[in-house]
Write a structure and sequence with these properties.
By secondary structure, this protein is an alpha+beta fold. The chain has one helix and five strands. A hairpin with a 6-residue loop joins strand 3 and strand 4.
Amino acid sequence: MDLVVDGIIVELKAVKHTTDEHVRQLWNYMHLTHTQYGMLINFGADRLYSAWYRRDPITGMIEKVRLM
């Protein structure tokens, strides 16, 4: 786990492409700490990539959050 900011886990990567493995790693951190929100940031691509994720407290499933 790279950072925890105001109860949000921030996972930092420097890879060409993020994969499901990176999302699963974030989910594991969120699950073990019972954290509801997480963010995956990749600095290794041509452009900065970031995605928000939310863990359902009842089912434990993680879903990508769309920001408007």
